[in-house]
Design goal:
Length: 221
């Protein structure tokens, strides 16, 4: 095929391309996907300073409330007022005090406890507290046995975590959990319905360990 014959064919090919480009039925070009937008992970937010916590607690103490979530930092809703929690100084709230006892080789070891039953109570736990009385703890209560994983986000003191199953038997202990860390704290291969948090070192001091029976008093089923 010579150049004279090829020239008209090239012209027809170019015209066809032009018509296709103008065809309203032709699908629009696909834009390349946009890169993902970086977002801030709330777990990366720095914890508040102890001074900031103390200021919020002082300002919030005594305010009216209907539940813990309406109280600042570690204050709890007691008799419709935001108040310092019982376990902070070991001062019981009005009414029957929840308690439990471990049956150890050294005898019965008792603790009074604050309860964390509602999801928002369990989510807050012992966050922001500067200390806890050694004869007190916080008992996390769940509807049934499950694999438990805990963290130390916004928790300023070392803690022992005692995992207890529905049969009220200790299945394991995590000792001296490091404050302000997000490492998983759990007892692999076990299920628990309750987790008792104590001041760091208290479980070892009293010989609390897996296999021991636990007796509850004034703790809802």
């Amino acid at each position: 095929m010579n150049a004279a014959t090829l020239r008209p064919l090239l012209g027809l090919f170019a015209a066809a391309l032009a018509l296709a480009a103008c065809d309203p039925a032709a699908p629009p070009p696909v834009a390349p996907p946009k890169p993902p937008v970086a977002t801030e992970d709330p777990d990366d937010a720095p914890p508040p300073s102890p001074e900031a916590i103390a200021a919020e607690v002082q300002a919030g103490e005594g305010k009216a409330c209907a539940k813990d979530a309406e109280c600042a930092m570690y204050l709890r809703c007691v008799e419709a007022k935001c108040a310092l929690p019982a376990a902070l100084e070991g001062k019981p709230a009005p009414g029957p005090t929840p308690a439990l006892a471990f049956i150890t080789a050294r005898g019965e070891v008792q603790f009074r406890v604050e309860l964390a039953i509602a999801p928002e109570e369990r989510s807050r736990g012992l966050m922001y507290r500067p200390k806890m009385h050694p004869e007190w703890g916080m008992l996390f209560v769940y509807p049934k046995d499950r694999e438990m994983v805990f963290w130390m986000k916004n928790t300023y003191m070392p803690l022992d975590m005692v995992f207890i199953n529905d049969a009220r038997e200790v299945v394991g202990v995590v000792a001296e959990a490091t404050p302000l860390t997000l490492d998983e704290r759990k007892v692999p291969g076990t299920q628990s319905r309750y987790v008792l948090e104590l001041a760091g070192g208290v479980a070892a001091k009293h010989g609390i360990q897996a296999g021991q029976k636990v007796i509850f008093a004034n703790i809802p089923e």
